[in-house]
Design brief:
19 strands, Translation, Eukaryotic Peptide Chain Release Factor Subunit 1, Chain A, 4-stranded antiparallel beta sheet, 11 helices, alpha+beta, 3 domains, about 375 residues, 60s Ribosomal Protein L30, Chain: A, Nucleotidyltransferase, domain 5
């Protein structure tokens, strides 16, 4: 088994949040000191085995279902790391190993879907993009702090020479008649007018073309600009892309390898995401009590399932067990052993599914009486 635990892609997250048949097992191991992780994971597996047997699964089938746990326990390189945090997801179709939660107690959950709220947090290692700008050519890269790949589609990379060549107008020709004796006609002498454009106009057209291509290639990724101060300032004035990082990579970005761009952009993106999270939290505080935000758990879960949550702040170090009945829009509180679902996880999944933002915090950092609060779209 690969000893590295990669951050899931959006497509992998979409797969994880789908309902499961036959008991979805989530074994959540927060960052654990060396020497303790294996013992904790074994205990989580025993707890999950008991739950599966209580649901009617035969002991032999339980052993087969939880066999992926043994593979993780035998990955010696994984357990030699200074601290290990992981989430192991198992169902009848196989298993997936993901990064574990940053906070909270170890948790074994068996239900109709996986427990994933910590993976939906919008702060750690978000995907982003880097645009290198130069007067010769511009390149767009997408990925995360561990890897960037160049986008080679939709006109990207884009060369300034090509943009100006295709946009070049034919020079206007004017005729000045001059009399010619003997022929009775007029001989036209022609000269061109319009000539070479101002460099500033050329640069604006070029950067506008780059911006159009970038806007078509990206959705809502934070975009870091790399280049000279002049080019970056000109691009900021030209583009309408809404998710530009405040910080930038100075100098000639085209001379940097993708790995160097990722290393330089990662902290800038993290700072931008933190600043955005705090701005959303300030809006939540300002709008509390106006109907545009809620600190009530029932209202938060209902709004998340309706697709009305713009930003959710949810505790990562606790769970609230219960069942949400969408037909009557009501919460019944149940213990996990009685079939309860973590309502905080449900709110996070539904918010993410409907395009909202999810921020996972410590319960003590949340503003209301419940470990969830939401900024509402309507």
């Amino acid at each position: 088994m690969n000893s590295m635990v990669p951050t899931p892609t959006p497509d992998e997250v979409r797969e994880l949040i789908c309902p499961r048949v036959g008991g979805a097992v989530s074994l959540l191991l927060p960052v654990t000191p060396p020497g303790e992780g294996r013992i904790t994971l074994r205990n989580l597996a025993r707890s999950a085995a008991s739950r599966l047997e209580a649901m009617g699964m035969r002991a032999a089938d339980v052993r087969v279902r939880l066999a992926p746990v043994d593979a993780v326990l035998e990955d010696h390189e994984l357990w030699q790391r200074p601290a290990v945090g992981l989430a192991l997801y198992i169902d009848q179709d196989g298993s997936m190993l993901m990064p574990g939660p940053q906070r909270g107690e170890p948790l074994a959950v068996v239900g109709s879907r996986f427990h994933v709220k910590h993976l939906l947090d919008g702060v750690p290692q978000p995907r982003f993009a880097v645009l290198t700008l130069s007067r010769k050519t511009s390149h767009l890269f997408t990925g995360d702090a561990s890897r960037l790949d160049e986008v080679a589609a939709g006109g990207l990379p884009m060369a300034m020479e090509e943009v100006l060549r295709y946009d070049e107008h034919e020079p206007q020709l004017q005729s000045h008649g001059s009399a010619r004796r003997g022929g009775g006609g007029v001989v036209g002498s022609f000269h061109g007018q319009g000539g070479k454009r101002e460099q500033g106009e050329d640069l604006h057209r070029y950067l506008r073309a780059v911006s159009v291509a970038v806007e078509a290639a990206l959705t809502d990724e934070c975009l870091v600009l790399a280049g000279t101060e002049e080019l970056i300032a000109a691009f900021r004035k030209t583009t309408s892309y809404a998710h530009l990082a405040t910080g930038e990579i100075p100098g000639s970005g085209e001379r940097l390898a993708a790995a160097d761009l990722a290393a330089a952009a990662g902290p800038l993106v993290h700072d931008a995401v933190i600043a955005h999270r705090e701005a959303m939290r300030s809006r939540l505080a300002e709008l509390s009590g106006t109907g545009a935000a809620t600190l009530d758990l029932g209202a938060t879960v209902t709004a998340a399932c309706d697709g009305r949550v713009e930003a959710l702040f949810v505790a990562g170090d606790t769970a609230v067990w219960g069942h949400y009945d969408a037909a009557v829009r009501r919460i019944d509180h149940l213990a996990a052993d009685d079939g309860g679902d973590d309502l905080l996880d449900l709110a996070a999944v539904e918010t993410w599914r409907h395009g909202g933002e999810v921020y996972v915090l410590a319960e003590a950092d949340l503003p209301g009486p419940w470990p969830a609060a939401a900024l509402l779209r309507y």
